[in-house]
Backbone:
């Protein structure tokens, strides 16, 4: 009964995530169609990968005809944050949690699912994540598949225009964070300048898109971590605020 209660709670909290995933996945599917990826391939990628930024990188690499090594390294760099998220969630579950439950939780760790899971004030039940993933993962896959299918029907000019909407997703992610944190804003600006430089400068412009992503991510992220590290007090304060907000919602 306890597992069912947590599962239903995860289902409920996963509905908004699923709706957002569907909308973003639709635009990603259109971009995938432009890169020559069909609906079956996109559907399998979405169900097995569970990483929007990682999939966008795959599409970019496929479009640029880069090699497998570049793709593997790019995914490692972009998705390594999920290892840190998994470590954080492992501290919130019972030490007696079976390995199969831990593996399923790890497979469906996304930014949004992690966000609602880490905000749970009490000890986390894995079935909460299972419930959220039950809604979120199929919604993402369905959105990407429909994006590819619609991209095959619409005129090429309209498909190209709609594929630009994907960049709106990234703007929606970075703009609010940039407004509230000057360091993030500086990193965003430096990333844009670096990306432009790699596109037009001699030698750098000859690098594949995947290699550019790897170099820029490692160099800029490492520099930001060294120059402007996040204070431990700020991390702890953010966690406490999230837990307090969750308690208020539960009380209401």
Residues:
């Amino acid at each position: 009964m306890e597992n069912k209660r947590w599962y239903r709670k995860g289902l409920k909290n996963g509905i908004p995530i699923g709706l957002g995933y569907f909308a973003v996945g639709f635009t990603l599917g259109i971009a995938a169609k432009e890169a020559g990826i069909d609906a079956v391939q996109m559907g399998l990628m979405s169900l097995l990968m569970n990483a929007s930024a990682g999939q966008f990188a795959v599409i970019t690499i496929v479009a640029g005809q880069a090699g497998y090594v570049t793709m593997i390294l790019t995914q490692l760099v972009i998705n390594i944050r999920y290892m840190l998220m998994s470590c954080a969630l492992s501290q919130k579950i019972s030490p007696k949690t079976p390995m199969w439950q831990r593996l399923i939780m790890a497979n469906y760790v996304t930014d949004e699912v992690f966000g609602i899971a880490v905000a749970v004030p009490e000890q986390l039940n894995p079935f909460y994540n299972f419930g959220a993933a039950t809604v979120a993962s199929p919604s993402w896959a369905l959105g990407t598949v429909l994006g590819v299918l619609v991209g095959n029907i619409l005129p090429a000019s309209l498909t190209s225009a709609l594929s630009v909407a994907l960049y709106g997703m990234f703007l929606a992610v970075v703009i609010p964070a940039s407004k509230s944190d000057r360091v993030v804003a500086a990193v965003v600006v430096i990333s844009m300048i670096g990306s432009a430089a790699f596109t037009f400068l001699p030698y750098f412009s000859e690098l594949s898109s995947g290699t550019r992503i790897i170099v820029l991510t490692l160099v800029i992220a490492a520099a930001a971590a060294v120059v402007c590290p996040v204070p431990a007090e700020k991390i702890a304060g953010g966690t406490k605020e999230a837990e307090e907000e969750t308690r208020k919602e539960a009380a209401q």
